[in-house]
Structure formats: C-alpha cells, structure tokens
Amino acid sequence: MKDVLRRIAAFTIQAAIGLCILAMIVVFLLDYTAGCGQTYIDSQGAVHPIATNDQCIAIKHHGKE
Hints:
Blueprint: H1 2-33, E1 39-41, E2 47-49
Antiparallel strand pairs: 1-2
C-alpha cells in the first residue's frame, strides 16, 4: 500500500511540475507573438518597441519608450 501511495505522490508532483513548465512556455509564446521584446526602426532611424511593457507579462523591452 505504501508503494502505491508513493507512486501516486510522485506522479502528482511530476504532473504539477510539468504543468508549471507548460504554463511558462505558453506565457512566453503569447508574449513573443504579441511583439513583446521586439522593435522596429522607422524611416528616420528611431527604434520603437512593438508592444509596451504594460502589455507584456514575461518579456520586457528595456529601451526608451
């Protein structure tokens, strides 16, 4: 009986860790597709972020906004 409980506990912990990693990947992917951390250069040579920091969760732009 102890062995079964130990296996269930190990599976539950592994599943929780896997779900946390999956959630982090989804957040980074959504931030990237929204343009977080990406910039564009206008016709005058000025660099602008595509998305502002208040629109991003994980990937922040560290330049001038």
